[in-house]
Design goal:
Elements lengths: L29 H20 L6 H6 L3 H57 L4 E11 L7 H13 L4 E4 L2 E2 L6 E4 L2 E4 L2 E3 L3 E6 L2 H8 L5 H7 L3 E12 L17
Antiparallel strand pairs: 1-7, 1-8, 2-3, 2-7, 4-5, 5-6
Helix pairs in contact: 1-3
Length: 252
């Protein structure tokens, strides 16, 4: 076998390039790589929440394996604390919402009760179904007892509130005077006497017309009585609020 000599002056072929060595941070074991991946995600979330801008990959790449474990534990602990704080805030919000609802409900209930008492005691105007009772007494024969009997019979028949000639009837209403010059709570009323009564109109009219009742008694004394049922009546006369002088609520 003949070997052809290389010509003089020819340069020798360069040696093949050396294989690059892997960087030291690439030579970590699979456990460190997994930790770096997990920590990158967790720290990325935590740091985004805290509005920090840090190159997480570079920080984690330069950490030792035991440091990665410690950082992972810290991030996990921080996440747990954040979850607990969120749970506490949600519980406080539910409690406040429930407390506000109970307070609002109690206030609404108190307002409704105050309105009901105002209607029954005559300190508030009222509207609703009822009847209009008109008593014409041309001879001036209607007595104090006749007016009292009429008011009591209306109450017994289910009247919730009423007014007579613009005077609201209450629990302490006083009827005084004499035939032809009657007084209701000290205010003069004159015939024809007009009663505006709120309640079940049918039941009240039936009670007024029973034998021996108000209608028969008044007509027997020469008066005329007209009863008209109304789908809606306005009782707008009101009584002044009376403050108790001696009685007080029992708080026990």
């Amino acid at each position: 076998m003949t070997t052809t000599p290389e010509p003089e002056g020819a340069e020798a072929a360069p040696p093949p390039p050396a294989r690059p060595r892997r960087p030291w941070w690439r030579r970590r074991g699979p456990r460190a790589g997994a930790l770096i991946g997990v920590l990158t995600l967790l720290l990325g979330f935590a740091l985004a929440v805290q509005v920090r801008n840090t190159d997480t990959d570079q920080v984690l790449a330069g950490a030792r394996e035991e440091d990665l474990v410690r950082i992972l534990e810290e991030v996990t602990s921080r996440g747990q604390r954040l979850r607990e704080q969120i749970a506490d805030e949600r519980a406080a919000l539910r409690q406040l919402t429930s407390s506000d609802s109970r307070s609002a409900g109690a206030l609404e209930e108190a307002r409704l009760r105050a309105d009901e008492l105002g209607v029954l005691t005559g300190t508030l105007p009222a509207v609703g179904p009822g009847l209009r009772l008109t008593v014409r007494d041309a001879g001036g024969t209607m007595r104090v007892t006749d007016l009292l009997d009429t008011i009591q019979e209306l109450r017994g028949a289910g009247a919730e509130t009423m007014q007579v000639d613009g005077v609201r009837v209450g629990l302490s209403t006083a009827v005084t005077g004499q035939p032809g010059a009657l007084l209701l709570d000290g205010r003069p009323i004159t015939a024809p006497y007009e009663f505006l009564v709120l309640g079940d109109p049918q039941n009240i009219e039936t009670a007024l017309n029973i034998p021996g009742g108000v209608v028969q008694s008044l007509t027997g004394r020469g008066a005329s009585v007209v009863v008209t049922q109304e789908a809606e009546l306005l009782v707008d006369a009101v009584r002044p609020r009376e403050e108790p002088r001696y009685a007080a609520p029992d708080d026990d």
